[in-house]
Amino acid sequence: MPVEPITTLVVDQHERASPVLASLTRYSWLSIRTAVLRSGDYAIRQILGIERKTGEDFARSVVDGRLFRQMGPLRRRYRRPLLLVEALADGSDVLGVPWPALRGALVSVSVAFGVPILRSASPEETAELIATAARQLREPVSIPYVRPGYRPKGWRRRALYILQRLPGVGPWRAAALLAAFGSVEAAAGADAAALARVPGVGPAIATSIREAVGPEQPAELRVARLEYSPYQTARAPRGSRAPGSPPTRCRSPQAAGGAARSRQGAQPALRGHLRRGLPREQVDLSRGQAPRTHERRSGARGPAVLARTRLGVSLS
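RE: above sequence
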């Protein structure tokens, strides 16, 4: 029989006298140790954090506001926060707190704070729920996880979306970083001094970005990556191109593909105009369309005469 790997469960010292801790000792694959937790009563590293409340404790925490002060840190500290309410009967008042108020607090925790809620009937069931959650988080998930939320389209919108994940960077600073460096890779590889020179960034935000991205890279590597970046859109520096040559910009793969499709689509339109009997010299070859026409009403008092004239030809 295969031996289950050991999972360390940290229990807050205030839960040492709880009957839940005695029930958790039945699971041999759980290594239980007590410590002072900053938030929550049971924790598995920074992955799972569980706040356990009995029915009476839940009612008291609603009255004094302690429940909502605990949910904020629990949500920020753990990737999987959880509120476990034990022995709370539906429709019954607890310690003089009416059931609608208790139900409203449950709704606020799950909707406003985004913390899931589990309910149990006894300490033994609470221990079973904690052990089940620990086992499910330990085993790999077979269903692929799909990240919900906004998914930008186009390389520029994706680049701005990624840059806005950096600390202290919003839409305006993300646009300034992209305009200064030309790509996410170049912005992430820039040193703190170069980041601080970007309008609106400053030394403090530049230091926070460097701490979030990682240690600075050598200057030679940054220059090489900036030179061969496929999504570089900034203009070449002044004096770097030959006199009289037009400014060049690197297109993204999506823009290059769209230009190729537009050139291919002009040929069928050109053939259609030729089939309708229009001379080739009267067809706009750049767009594959016949020249547009307009009408002018001539004569001030006499009968109206419509002069149909092609663009580019004098009407007089």
